[in-house]
């Protein structure tokens, strides 16, 4: 039965399929005293990150990681300055950093990245007879989907679970992406501006510094 | 001679009368410290410990297991030393409202997660630093119910505790008052209480309002939850006034205003006030014994230097992974064969949905609403039960979980995350039975410190699977009734439990009902590793209650 409620619901889905927010919200807040010094330091460093030269991965492997990241987080809206997701991975591998656990089924992280990126390179060659970097976006996505589903060809994937490797890779790149102030602007997150606390907790109520959604049709 | 001193001669009343108002006292002290920082006790160089001094008690770990008993023992006049693997933070200065920057709060030495349902460690359940995991706990502090301790009696499975609710009740009462727990006037579930919570509940955030709406339609009773975060200023002995929660929603990445009752702003300053010596950055490597097998001291690394602290008694409070790991590495208290075994975790499946309403899930105490109507569900096809909890969520944690469970990437991933401000979650916290296939062992692989990594095997068994399915079904119904679309479940197990359990006999337990090791007369264990069963509630409050009880039982014997 068609009711006003379902119509409103349908309209919501249509409009809200992907809410958008104004640009510049987090950057503007970082310049205010609504953000603590420790918080500003963390976020501003990501905004101001200089061009990064890989220190752990060799040049070709690092470029492959960047190309994979560009498919997992395509940024056609930032053609000149995409959020770089590979530097934090390279730095972590260099320092031997850990998030406290790993799947026992996977080798240590350095080895897993070496094998996994090598596996993606080999699977691209097998599936399309070309280097991953030379493939079309659709072809790259087919290679990555095959790794994620555990169906990618290649010896590496006999030794190491592509499903688990892909999950770890995707989770790490996702965390790098949404830790970035521009990604936080994209989803309307301003939780970092918490010095005065939050006073409007009711549904649909906003504190004055929270950005309103823009309807984009 | 300065004039002020001359003026004092012959004056009956001192020129500076004793300030009575604690707030004024605190302000004056703060001003004095700012004028002369060298007087700040935190700025003083720590005296070098005397290597030959034998202290009454060494406590390893400063979380929910170690901190309360440390304070209790110090207040009884004992000479006590706490060894904490991590640093001492100044949350006001050091804590950022940024998930990545706060990663230093988690125990990030790598653990190996094996089995069919490998457990995530690090930020999921393991902390480091003065205050331990309470630095990042959600502050959700329901009491266990009386039948939680009696699964075997009621269902014929699992293991009963050698103590019960009646042994912990007075400690629950004491803790709720001491920590300043915010909660409802009349809590609807569990045994009748002697006291209400000392503070009113924290405000319901978006997720809590939605869960309340959905539950109302389904006839499920809800209540504002008990949270160890202050809904109003609260005076804390040894600290002064703690400020009220400002709804930052960042409990799991550290509270920077002291509103959350982590150990560093409650029991540890109290302990320090009574002379406890808390040593940060002190990682214990060895536990030394004499010919009779009694503990004589511990060896630890502090800032690259190897040190020894002799003691008459040792309290091991390092959590359900590091505690059994230390026992196994030192081949200590292993006669029962139970060290590292009986590893359990709480069933913790989360259900997420997208709502038309603006939710802004980063605001407010994350777990604002509770239901324990599912404590012993009538239609259950499993033993035990669970509680339901609304959940707010920080963006990086949420995105990471969505990536793992929904496997979204590319444009689809970015599009989904644009809904973040419309997302709300519910999760459960349920019992979990010990099983032979779930245990901790030492791996061949070494960590960065050169110590064998722990490998933890965990595979959910039939009971956990049935409970999770039951809960997921109810939570999906609640979210549908509340108006959610795009509902999905994130399978998850929370907390680490059971690897050095307490019991009546050294044949099948590591410690007795008072927390004392059956094999080693002067070794006590107090943390979630001594839990014989997981309980259907979050563990922090019960760990603290056990900690106070362990101290009292020890002091009774010492008298």
From TrEMBL, chain B:
Q: Where is this region: Disordered?
A: 31-50
Which residues does the UniProt record annotate as the domain Glucose-methanol-choline oxidoreductase N-terminal? 127-347
State the name under which the record lists this protein. Answer: GMC family oxidoreductase
Q: Which organism is it from?
A: Hymenobacter profundi
Its family remark reads: Belongs to the GMC oxidoreductase family.
Lineage of this protein's species?
A: Bacteria, Pseudomonadati, Bacteroidota, Cytophagia, Cytophagales
Q: Flavoprotein: present as a keyword of the record?
A: yes
Ranges for domain Glucose-methanol-choline oxidoreductase C-terminal: 434-546
Q: Which keywords has UniProt assigned to this entry?
A: FAD, Flavoprotein, Oxidoreductase
Q: Could you confirm whether the keyword Oxidoreductase appears in this record?
A: yes
| InterPro entries assigned | GMC_OxRdtase_N, GMC_OxRtase_C
């Amino acid at each position: 039965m068609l009711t006003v409620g379902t119509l409103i619901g349908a309209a919501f889905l249509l409009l809200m399929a992907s809410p958008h927010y104004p640009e510049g919200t987090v950057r503007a807040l970082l310049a205010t005293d609504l953000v603590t010094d420790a918080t500003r330091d963390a976020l501003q460093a990501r905004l101001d990150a200089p061009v990064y030269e890989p220190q752990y991965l060799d040049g070709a492997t690092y470029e492959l990681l960047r190309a994979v990241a560009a498919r997992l987080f395509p940024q056609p809206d930032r053609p000149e300055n995409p959020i770089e997701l590979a530097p934090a991975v390279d730095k972590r591998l260099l320092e031997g950093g850990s998030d406290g656990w790993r799947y026992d089924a996977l080798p240590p992280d350095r080895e897993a990245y070496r094998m996994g990126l090598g596996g993606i390179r080999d699977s691209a060659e097998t599936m399309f007879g070309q280097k991953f970097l030379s493939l079309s976006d659709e072809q790259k996505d087919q290679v990555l989907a095959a790794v994620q589903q555990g169906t990618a060809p290649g010896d590496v994937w006999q030794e190491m679970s592509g499903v688990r490797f892909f999950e770890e890779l995707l989770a790490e790149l996702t965390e790098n992406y949404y830790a970035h102030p521009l990604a936080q602007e994209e989803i309307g997150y301003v939780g970092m501006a918490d010095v005065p606390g939050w006073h409007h907790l009711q549904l649909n109520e906003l504190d004055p510094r929270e950005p309103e959604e823009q309807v984009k049709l | 001679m300065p004039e002020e001193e001359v003026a004092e001669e012959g004056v009956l009343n001192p020129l500076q009368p004793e300030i009575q108002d604690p707030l004024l006292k605190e302000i004056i002290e703060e001003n004095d410290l700012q004028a002369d920082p060298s007087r700040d006790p935190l700025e003083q160089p720590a005296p070098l410990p005397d290597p030959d001094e034998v202290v009454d008690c060494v406590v390893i770990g400063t979380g929910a297991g170690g901190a309360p008993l440390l304070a209790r023992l110090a207040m009884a006049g004992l000479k006590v030393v706490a060894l904490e693997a991590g640093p001492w933070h100044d949350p006001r200065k050091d804590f950022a409202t940024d998930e990545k920057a706060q990663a230093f709060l988690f125990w990030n030495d790598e653990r190996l997660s094996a089995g069919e349902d490998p457990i995530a460690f690090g930020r999921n359940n393991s902390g480091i630093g003065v205050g331990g995991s309470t630095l990042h706990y959600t502050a959700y502090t329901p009491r266990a119910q009386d039948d939680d301790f009696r699964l075997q009696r009621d269902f014929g499975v699992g293991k009963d505790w050698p103590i019960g609710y009646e042994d912990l009740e007075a400690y629950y009462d004491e803790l709720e008052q001491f920590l300043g727990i915010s909660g409802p006037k009349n809590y609807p579930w569990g045994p009748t209480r002697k006291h209400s919570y000392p503070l009113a509940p924290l405000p319901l955030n978006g997720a809590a309002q939605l869960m309340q709406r959905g539950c109302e339609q389904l006839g499920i009773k809800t209540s504002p939850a008990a949270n160890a975060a202050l809904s109003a200023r609260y005076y804390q002995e040894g600290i002064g006034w703690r400020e009220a929660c400002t709804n930052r929603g960042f409990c799991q990445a550290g509270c920077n205003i002291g509103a959350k009752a982590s150990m560093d702003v409650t029991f540890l300053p109290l302990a320090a006030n009574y002379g406890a010596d808390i040593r940060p950055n002190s990682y214990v490597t060895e536990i030394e014994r004499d010919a009779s097998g009694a503990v004589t001291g511990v060896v630890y690394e502090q800032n690259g230097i190897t040190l020894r602290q002799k003691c008459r008694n040792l309290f091991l409070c390092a959590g359900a992974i590091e505690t059994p790991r230390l026992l196994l590495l030192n081949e200590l208290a292993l006669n029962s064969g139970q060290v590292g075994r009986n590893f359990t975790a709480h069933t913790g499946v989360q259900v997420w949905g997208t709502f038309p309403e603006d939710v802004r899930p980063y605001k407010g105490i994350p777990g604002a609403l509770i239901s324990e109507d599912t404590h012993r569900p009538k239609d259950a096809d499993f033993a035990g039960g669970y509680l339901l909890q609304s959940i707010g969520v920080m963006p990086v944690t949420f995105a990471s979980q969505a990536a793992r469970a929904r496997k979204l990437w590319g444009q689809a991933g970015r599009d989904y995350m644009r809904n973040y401000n419309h997302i709300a979650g519910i999760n459960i916290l349920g019992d979990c039975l010990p099983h032979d296939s779930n245990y901790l062992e030492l791996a061949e692989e070494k960590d960065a410190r050169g110590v064998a990594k722990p490998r933890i095997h965990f595979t959910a068994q039939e009971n956990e699977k049935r409970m999770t399915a039951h809960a997921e079904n109810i939570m999906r119904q609640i979210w549908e009734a509340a108006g959610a679309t795009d509902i999905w479940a994130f399978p998850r197990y929370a907390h680490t439990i059971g690897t050095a359990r307490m019991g009546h006999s050294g044949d099948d337990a590591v410690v007795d009902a008072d927390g004392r090791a059956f094999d080693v007369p002067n070794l006590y264990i107090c943390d979630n590793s001594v839990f014989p069963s997981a309980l259907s509630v979050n563990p922090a409050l019960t760990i603290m209650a056990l900690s106070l009880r362990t101290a009292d039982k020890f002091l009774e014997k010492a008298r």
